[in-house]
Structure to design on (160 residues):
C-alpha cells in the first residue's frame, strides 16, 4: 500500500505523486482510490488501491536507475522488425509493460528511426507517448524540470 506523497509509476500514464487516498463510489461500488497527480501534463488519475499490483503500479526508479536509462538512450539502436505492424506491436508491448528501461529503448529506437527515415503517424504518436512516460519518471527521479529532462533526452539521442 502506498501513502500520500509517494512517487509512483502507473504504466501507460507515467509517473506521479499520490496526492490523496479517497473513498469514492464508482458504478455503484464504494472503493478506495489513490489520487495521483502527474507533474507532466498536470493530469490527475484515480487508481483503485485494491488493484495496484494488477495494474503494475510501482515505485519511481532511483539514481542508479536514471543512470541506466541514460546508458540505454546513448546506446546503439537495437534490432527492430522491418515490418511496421510487428514493430508497432513490439514497441507497444514494451510501453505497456511499465518497465522504464523498455520505454527508454522505444524512445531511443523511434527517435533514431525518425532522424534517419522518418516515422509514420502511428509511430510518431507512439514516440510522443513513450517520451511523455519517460520524461514524467525522470522528472521525479532526478528532481528536475521537464525542460531539463527534454534537454537530457535530446543530448543522449544526438550522440547515437
Amino acid at each position: 500500500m502506498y501513502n500520500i506523497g509517494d512517487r509512483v509509476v502507473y504504466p501507460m500514464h507515467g509517473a506521479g505523486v499520490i496526492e490523496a487516498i479517497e473513498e469514492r463510489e464508482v458504478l455503484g461500488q464504494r472503493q478506495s482510490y489513490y489520487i495521483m497527480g502527474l507533474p507532466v501534463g498536470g493530469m490527475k488519475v484515480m487508481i483503485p488501491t485494491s488493484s495496484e499490483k494488477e495494474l503494475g503500479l510501482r515505485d519511481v526508479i532511483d539514481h542508479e536507475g536514471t543512470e541506466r536509462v541514460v546508458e540505454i538512450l546513448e546506446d546503439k539502436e537495437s534490432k527492430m522488425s522491418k515490418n511496421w505492424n510487428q514493430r508497432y506491436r513490439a514497441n507497444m508491448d514494451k510501453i505497456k509493460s511499465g518497465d522504464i528501461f523498455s520505454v527508454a529503448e522505444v524512445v531511443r529506437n523511434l527517435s533514431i528511426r525518425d532522424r534517419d527515415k522518418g516515422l509514420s503517424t502511428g509511430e510518431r504518436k507512439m514516440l510522443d507517448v513513450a517520451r511523455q512516460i519517460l520524461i514524467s519518471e525522470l522528472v521525479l527521479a532526478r528532481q528536475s524540470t521537464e525542460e531539463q529532462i527534454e534537454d537530457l533526452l535530446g543530448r543522449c539521442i544526438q550522440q547515437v
About this structure: The chain has five helices and five strands. Strands lie at 7-10, 14-26, 29-37, 44-48, 58-59. The CA atoms of residues 29 and 83 lie 45 Å apart. The chain has a mean pLDDT of 92.
